[in-house]
Amino acid sequence: MDRPAAVAGRFYTADPRALGLEVASYLALAETPEEAPTLLAMVPHAGYVFSGPVAGRTLGEARLAPLVVLLGPNHTGRGRPLALWPSGRWVVPGGGLDVDTELAEALLHAEPRLAADTAAHAQEHSLEVVLPFLAARNPQTTIVPLCVAEPRYAELEAVAASLAGVLGVLGRPASLVVSSDMSHFLPDAQTRRVDARALEPVLTLDPRGLYDTVRAQGISMCGVLPMTLGLLAAKALGATSARLAAYGTSAAASGDASRVVGYAGVIVR
């Protein structure tokens, strides 16, 4: 049940050598790496020319475990609201990462809200674009990809409790990586103000505050649902602090500040 690359040649180059060089250049933007293990990292998922620097700096500074639970939004509308890819390998140009079947099976057994579902992932880009960064950091990384479209906070809270419970007794360290862009298609200055409002509860480890702020203010943060789930799980696993590792907008690449997308990198420990 391997998943072939769906957006290679669009969001990032399909040439394996060029991809490796580009990802390495973004990871090289990292400054002081984390000393404490990273419980959760949030990174963006646009085309690399736009979001690559933020994703690279963030993941270059994160201290991820060799087992990563990937949480991303559902842009396509396909599949189940909490869709877990259960086995096989996710392929990207020049390589790929194996699904951790032990953890996938444990999560499906522990949490009936999760569904073994590949349809939600087949054409979804949000998790795929993160894989080359994870593979470059550690090609032995194993993953459990979860596409999150469940809009109800109580359901996200329940799934997060199950996720934290399974990870807590797994006997191996694991990290969460959330894929999310920030606000979309506002002027640059407004984007930065709006994104700061959404990031404030993230940086204070307040998942309910994030969920309520984004919904009440109509902020177009596409990964608010997976990030709410991720923050809930990270807190249950003992998270104590978060920091903004990187921030930027698409204007840096496009030169157009009139209509941009915001990108944030967050590390939770």
Number of helices: 9
| The number of domains | 1
Please state the CA-atom Rg, rounded to the nearest Å.
17 Å
Question: Ends: how far apart?
Answer: 33 Å
Q: What is the third-level CATH name, the topology?
A: Protocatechuate 4,5-dioxygenase, Chain B
Report helical residue fraction: 25-40%
What is the average per-residue confidence, as pLDDT, rounded to a whole number? 98
CATH C-level name: Alpha Beta
What class do helices, strands and sheet pairing give? Answer: alpha/beta
Can you tell me the residue ranges where pLDDT is under 50 for at least 5 consecutive residues? none
The CATH homologous superfamily is termed LigB-like
The sequence of SSEs as H and E is HEHEEEEHEHEHEEHHHEHE
The CATH architecture is 3-Layer(aba) Sandwich
Shape: globular
Number of strands: 11
Sheet-strand content, in percent, reads 15-25%
Biggest sheet record? 11 strands, mixed
Describe the structure.
- It is a single chain.
- It is built from 9 helices and 11 strands.
- The protein has 269 residues and is α/β, with parallel strands linked by helices.
- It has one domain (16-268): LigB-like (Protocatechuate 4,5-dioxygenase, Chain B).
- Strands 1, 2, 3, 4, 5, 6, 7, 8, 9, 10 and 11 form an 11-stranded mixed sheet that branches.
- The protein starts with 15 loop residues before the first helix and ends with a strand.
